[in-house]
Specification:
The protein is mainly alpha-helical. The chain has one domain. The chain has helices at residues 2-14, 19-31, 35-61, 65-84, 99-111, 114-125, 129-150, 154-157, 160-182. The longest helix has 27 residues, at 35-61. The two termini are 25 Å apart.
Length: 187
């Protein structure tokens, strides 16, 4: 159950200001808050969470205990690096109305974002990976809803860059601590 809650909160928090959330916000601002856009965003969030849960569960099953712990540490470090990477916000002047095209772009953006690596890490390190997957999917849906609802106000309401840097530092520290514990060098 803790994997569910950790994944839910972590994915929701680390999705603030992510490329996919800003894309949803930009499209909602330009084309309006359509139900189709919201449903596509939620479906993609569920799909990417399922894919990362499968990947985390599958790879972790091949590794010994210490290897699983190192895998989690690597996934957390990748998530930290993605969060720290500057997110150049390019506003779309004339976005497409094609929900298929929007869905494909969202899929591409989500498969490499830090939040999905967290789902992978929680699924790999958890005894019950599907709780982590469900929590991650709900966190991803929450992030899509926030982007869809706030639209053009998203970037103005929060200091997104500072929040993402703070979360990147926290994830990097956690990754280092977990990696050291897997090597037997910490506690």
């Amino acid at each position: 159950m803790s994997g569910f809650l950790f994944a839910l909160v972590a994915v929701m928090a680390t999705s603030l200001g992510s490329r996919d959330q800003l894309l949803i916000a930009n499209i909602a601002a330009k084309l309006g808050r359509s139900t189709g856009l919201l449903l596509v965003g939620c479906a993609v969030a569920i799909g990417t969470a399922v894919a990362m849960t499968f990947a985390g569960q599958y790879i972790a099953a091949m590794l010994p205990s210490a290897g699983k712990t190192m895998l989690v540490a690597f996934a957390l470090m990748i998530a930290a690096a993605e969060l720290a990477w500057p997110n150049k916000r390019s506003l779309i002047k004339e976005p497409t109305r094609s929900l298929v095209a929007i869905g494909l772009v969202l899929l591409a953006r989500q498969m490499g974002d830090g939040s999905r690596f967290l789902i992978f890490a929680f699924a790999a390190g958890s005894g019950i990976p599907w709780f982590a997957g469900i929590g991650g999917a709900l966190g991803g849906i929450g992030a899509v809803i926030v982007g869809w609802f706030l639209a053009e106000e998203l970037a103005g309401k929060l200091p997104l860059r500072k929040l993402r840097i703070a979360m990147a530092v926290a994830l990097a520290i956690a990754a280092i601590a977990i990696g050291l514990s897997a090597r037997g060098l910490l506690g």
